[in-house]
């Protein structure tokens, strides 16, 4: 498993502490007169992710995506261009970092990858026009309807100091419940996303 022990990686963690099972890796950009080449994923890195779907996502300034939760699949995030914050909240009761949060700051000029396991609430905020690559271990056609949970990004119980106000949200995300209600819903037998 990739760990967050190098000082240059820990500098991207701006609040909270590393969460169990989260892999964070600096990427190496090889440049020459033609441009550059950067490996963005290798099986040999030993992450929790076995990708089933890759997506390229463009976001406008002041866009917030999340806070989402999936209980069946792992995720990968790498910012290609732009500037963003990534917030994670561990709600896995059996995790050594249960109820802890981490907030990362990434830029496209300093390429890194964040891979995290199922059971972590996650969201990303984009300061400027940005492009990221995202992978999941279960394709969207299979998880979209019954494993696509969420809570409101601004809930103080998330303990994520975003430092933002009034971001652009999807209609669905603007209606997400507080964290406490999400946890209650998840514990209710038969409740679906």
TrEMBL record:
One of the GO BP terms on file: dTDP-rhamnose biosynthetic process
GO molecular function terms listed in the Swiss-Prot or TrEMBL record: dTDP-4-dehydrorhamnose 3,5-epimerase activity
Catalytic activity: dTDP-4-dehydro-6-deoxy-alpha-D-glucose = dTDP-4-dehydro-beta-L-rhamnose
Cellular component, GO, one term: cytosol
Segments crossing the lipid bilayer: none
EC numbers, comma separated: 5.1.3.13
Marked site: Participates in a stacking interaction with the thymidine ring of dTDP-4-oxo-6-deoxyglucose: 143
Domain of life: Bacteria
SUPFAM superfamilies: RmlC-like cupins
Purpose: Catalyzes the epimerization of the C3' and C5'positions of dTDP-6-deoxy-D-xylo-4-hexulose, forming dTDP-6-deoxy-L-lyxo-4-hexulose.
Annotated PANTHER family: DTDP-6-DEOXY-D-GLUCOSE-3,5 EPIMERASE, THYMIDINE DIPHOSPHO-4-KETO-RHAMNOSE 3,5-EPIMERASE
Protein name per the record: dTDP-4-dehydrorhamnose 3,5-epimerase
């Amino acid at each position: 498993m990739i760990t967050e022990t190098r000082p240059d990686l820990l500098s991207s963690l701006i609040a909270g502490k590393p969460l169990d099972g989260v892999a964070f890796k600096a990427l190496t950009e090889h440049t020459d007169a033609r441009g550059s080449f950067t490996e963005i994923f290798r099986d040999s890195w030993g992450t929790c992710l076995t990708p089933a779907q890759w997506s390229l996502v463009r976001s406008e300034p002041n866009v917030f995506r999340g806070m989402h939760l999936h209980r069946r699949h792992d995720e990968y995030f790498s910012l290609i261009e732009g500037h963003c914050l990534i917030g994670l909240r561990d709600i896995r009761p059996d995790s050594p970092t249960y109820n802890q949060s981490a907030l990362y700051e990434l830029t496209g000029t300093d390429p890194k990858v964040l891979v995290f396991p199922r059971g972590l609430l996650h969201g990303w905020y984009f300061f400027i026009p940005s492009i990221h690559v995202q992978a999941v271990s279960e394709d969207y056609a299979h998880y979209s309807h019954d494993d696509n949970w969420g809570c409101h990004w601004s809930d103080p119980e998330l303990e994520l100091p975003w430092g933002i106000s009034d971001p652009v949200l999807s209609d669905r995300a603007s209606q997400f419940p507080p964290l406490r209600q999400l946890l209650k819903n998840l514990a209710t037998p038969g409740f679906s996303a």
